[in-house]
UniProtKB/TrEMBL annotation, chains A, B:
Catalyzes the hydroxylation of L-kynurenine (L-Kyn) to form 3-hydroxy-L-kynurenine (L-3OHKyn). Required for synthesis of quinolinic acid. This is Kynurenine 3-monooxygenase. GO terms for biological process: 'de novo' NAD+ biosynthetic process from L-tryptophan; anthranilate metabolic process; kynurenine metabolic process; L-tryptophan catabolic process; quinolinate biosynthetic process. InterPro entries: FAD-bd (IPR002938), FAD/NAD-bd_sf (IPR036188), Kynurenine_monooxygenase (IPR027545). GO terms for molecular function: FAD binding; kynurenine 3-monooxygenase activity. The gene is LOC105364479.
Length: 437, 437
C-alpha cells in the first residue's frame, strides 16, 4: 500500500563470500550496512584462508547475476568443468558428464578472488562501510547491540543495529549466542574423515597436466582424492579419508607407499618431493556439518551461509546454498516491505528444512563419490537417467541436476528423486541404488 | 602393579544432584574435591528450583547404596509407586503395574530434599569444600583453569584443577566450551511441547486425595497430564502439551473449559480456584534433549548428567542416568588406577552411545504415555510381556523393566526389545506395536 520503507541500520558479521554478498544486496535495497570482518583486508594482505576450491553452479550464479558479477566471475575467471573424470587404480580414466542433455557445467572459482571482487562490489555502495580487523566479542540479540575488538589495536567498540546478520561461518559466534536461547535446535556433527590438501603443478608449455575441463576423482571405497583446475593451470587436490588412515601416513615413506598403491597416476603428476612437502605442511583438517532451526532470533538477528548450515563439501553446495540464502532474504524483504518482524520468521520457515536437506545430501554424496561412481549400478543408473531426461526433458531431471543446475527447493530435490527411484526400479530392477536416496 | 595413585585436585562445576553425588564418590576415592554451585546453599535458603518430581529407580538406587544413602532416601522419604494409574476421560481408572512379576516399584522423591542430603553427605568428607554463590565465567579445558564470579560480592576467583567435572546441567557452560573444540558432536533439540506445573492438595484427614502408590496419567493423545505423590500427601501434577495448545489456554475461562472437557476428575480434585492460580503463576516451560559425543576433552575435562545428556522426562531416567554416570566413572577410576588419560576416553567410549539411546527412548516414551497406554494393542502387549516374563523370568524382561529395574546398558535395552518384538509379533500377529521400538 505504498507504505514508506524504513532505512535499516544493518550490521553484517563476517566478510567472507556470503557476508560480502548480503552486504551488496541490502545496500542495493537502500539500507545502511556496516560489514565487520576479523581478518585484514584480503585485497591488501592475502592470508591463506579456507581451502577446497569452490564449484559455482546455478544458485550461486543467479545471486551473482543480480548484482551484475556473473559474467566477470564465470567468463573471465571461472574454469568450466563439464563432468567428473574418474581415475581408476590401474590408471584408466572414465568420464561422467554432469549434464549431457543441457550441457550445463559447474565452474571452478578461486575463493580469494571471488571474495575480493565481492568486497569491492560492496564498497562501491556509498551506504556501506567495511571494518576489517574487527572481531566480534559479544552481541545482544534482543537489542541488536554488538561489541567488537580491533585485532591490531585492541580497541573495543560498541555499536547498535536494527538487524544483525551473522555470516560468520561454521564456527559462528552469533549462532553460539542463539544456542543459548530457548527452542533453538542445533545439530553439530563432525564426520570421522578429514582431509589434506595437495597441489598439482602446471604442465608443460603452461598447460594443464590433465584435463582442465573436469573435476577429477580417484574413488577408492573408504577414501578418495579429488582435484579441481585453477586458472593458473595448477590443480588443487584434496585427499579425504578416515582420520585413522590419515594418521597412519605419518612418515614420507608411508605416504609415498600409500600413493604408489592407491594413486599411482596422481603421484606421478604431483611428484614425490612436492607431495611430501604439501602433505606435511599442515595437519589433516576436520569436516563439519551444522543443521539448526530457526535461523532467526526475534526481529533483530539472522544467521545465513555456513553459520546456519555448514555442510561437508561433497555436493559443492556450501557457497551456492549461502548465496541462495541471500536471494531468498532479498525476495522476502521485497514481499514484506522490509518489515523484519515478518521477514525473519518467514525466512526460517522456508529455509531451515531446505538446508537440513542439502546438508544430508552432501553427506550422502560422499558415499557416492567415494564408492558408487565405480560401481556398475551407479553407471547404469546415470545412463538410464540420461536416456529418460533426453526423452522427457521437462519431467525427468536427475537429482544432481536439480540440486546443481536448478533452483528447485533442496527439499523437493529429494522427494523428486524418490519417485524417480521408484520408476527406475521398475524399469531396471536394480535395488542397490535405492539406498542412495 | 601397585603404582601409587596420585591425589587429584578436582573441580566439580554444579552442586545439583549429580554434582553433589560425584563429589562424594571422588572424595571417597581420596581426591581433593572443590564443588562450585552458583546458587546459595539450598539447605539454608531454598529457592524454588527445577520442578517435575523425581522417580528414583534401580540405577539411581545403586549409586545411593554405594554411599550408604539408599535406605534413608527410599525407606524414609521415598513414596513407592507400584504402577501407572490411567485416568480415562469418563473418570474411570485403569491400573498398569510396572512389574507384576518381581514387584519392583519406582520411588517418588523430592528433588530439593535429595539435593540437601547429598550436599550434606559431600560435606562430611574433610577433603571436600563447597563454594556456593560461585558462578562459572570461563574455563580452560586444556589446563584445567577456571574463573568464577561470586554472585553476591562480584569477586572474581581463578582456580586451577587437575580435572574439571561439568555437572552444570542442561545449559552447561562446560559443554558449550567443548562445542568449540574440533570433533565434538552435539545435538540440541527442543520438542514442540511444553509443560505447566499444577498441584493437587492434601485430601481429607491428611490422606492422599487419590492413590498414593501410583504414578497418575491422563493420556489424551496429543497431550497428557501426570501427577506424582509427595510425602506431604500432596501431588505434583504436570500438563504436557504442544505450545499451541498451552498458548490457547490464555484466560481462566479457556483453562477451566479445557479441564472440564479433558480432565474433569483432575479439575474436581484440584479445585477451580487453585488450578487457575497454579497455572498462571509461570509461563509454560520448554523440554530439551541433548545428545553429544564425546563427553571428555583431553585429560582434564568431563561432562556428566544433564550437561552431557539432558533428556525429556518421560522415561524418568534423567537423574538415574546421571547417577549411573557416576557409578561408571568410579568403576573406570578403579580399573585405570585413577589415570585420567585412560579413564576419560574410556568413559566416552562406553557411555555416549548408551545415553544417545536413553534420550531416544525418553522421546518415544512420550508417545507411549500420551497415546498407547489407552490402546488395546498396548494393553495386550503388556499382558503378553507379563505372561512371558512369568514363564521365563531370566530371559524375558520387558523394555520398561530393563531400563527401570536393571542396570542393563541402555543400548542393549533397545536391542533386547527388538528381538522381543519379533517374537511377540509371531505370537500375536500385532503389527502396530512394532513402531514403538
Amino acid at each position: 500500500m505504498g507504505s514508506e520503507v524504513r532505512t535499516l541500520n544493518v550490521a553484517v558479521v563476517g566478510g567472507g563470500l556470503v557476508g560480502a554478498l548480503v552486504t551488496c544486496f541490502l545496500a542495493k535495497r537502500g539500507h545502511r550496512v556496516n560489514l565487520y570482518e576479523y581478518r585484514p583486508d584480503i585485497r591488501v594482505e592475502n592470508s591463506r584462508g579456507v581451502s577446497i576450491d569452490l564449484a559455482l553452479s546455478a544458485r550461486g550464479r543467479e545471486a551473482l547475476r543480480a548484482i551484475d558479477l556473473e559474467d566477470l566471475v564465470i567468463n573471465h575467471h571461472g574454469i568450466a568443468m563439464k563432468g567428473r573424470m574418474i581415475h581408476l587404480k590401474d590408471g584408466s580414466l572414465k568420464e561422467i558428464i554432469y549434464d549431457s542433455v543441457n550441457k550445463n557445467c559447474i565452474y571452478s572459482v578461486n575463493r580469494t578472488y571471488l571474495n575480493q571482487i565481492l568486497l569491492s562490489a560492496a564498497e562501491k555502495y556509498e551506504n556501506v562501510t567495511i571494518f576489517f580487523n574487527h572481531k566480534l566479542l559479544d552481541a545482544d540479540l534482543d537489542t541488536g547491540a554488538l561489541k567488537f575488538i580491533h585485532m591490531q589495536t585492541d580497541e573495543i567498540s560498541n555499536v547498535e543495529s536494527d538487524l544483525i546478520i551473522g555470516a560468520d561461518g561454521a564456527y559462528s559466534l552469533i549462532r553460539r549466542l542463539m544456542i543459548k536461547k530457548p527452542r533453538f535446535n542445533c545439530n553439530q556433527a563432525y564426520i570421522d574423515h578429514g582431509y589434506v590438501e595437495v597441489s598439482y603443478p602446471i604442465g608443460k608449455d603452461n598447460k594443464y597436466i590433465m584435463s582442465g575441463n573436469h573435476l577429477h576423482i580417484w574413488p577408492r571405497g573408504n577414501f578418495m582424492m579429488i582435484a579441481l583446475p585453477n586458472d593458473d593451470y595448477t590443480f588443487t587436490g584434496n585427499l579425504f579419508a578416515p582420520f585413522k588412515t590419515l594418521e597412519a601416513l605419518n612418515t614420507p615413506e608411508n605416504l609415498l607407499e600409500f600413493f604408489r598403491q592407491e594413486f599411482p597416476d596422481g603421484l606421478r603428476l604431483i611428484g614425490e618431493e612436492k607431495l611430501v612437502k604439501d602433505f606435511f605442511q599442515t595437519s589433516p583438517k576436520t569436516l563439519l556439518s551444522i543443521q539448526c532451526k530457526p535461523y532467526h532470533f526475534g526481529s533483530k538477528a539472522l544467521i545465513i551461509g555456513d553459520a546456519a548450515h555448514a555442510m561437508v563439501p561433497f555436493y559443492a553446495q556450501g557457497m551456492n546454498a549461502g548465496f541462495e540464502d541471500v536471494l531468498l532474504l532479498d525476495k522476502l524483504m521485497e514481499i514484506h516491505n522490509d518489515n523484519l518482524e515478518k521477514v525473519l520468521p518467514h525466512f526460517s520457515e522456508i529455509r531451515c528444512d531446505d538446508c537440513y536437506a542439502i546438508c544430508d545430501l552432501a553427506m550422502y554424496n560422499y558415499v557416492e563419490m567415494r564408492e558408487l561412481v565405480t560401481k556398475k549400478a551407479f553407471i547404469f543408473r546415470k545412463y538410464i537417467d540420461t536416456v529418460l531426461q533426453w526423452l522427457f526433458p521437462k519431467n525427468w531431471i536427475p537429482l544432481y541436476s536439480t540440486v546443481t543446475f536448478s533452483r528447485m527447493r533442496y527439499r523437493d530435490c529429494i522427494s523428486n528423486k524418490a519417485w524417480q527411484d521408484k520408476v527406475s526400479l521398475n524399469l531396471t530392477n536394480f535395488d542397490s541404488i535405492a539406498l542412495q536416496y
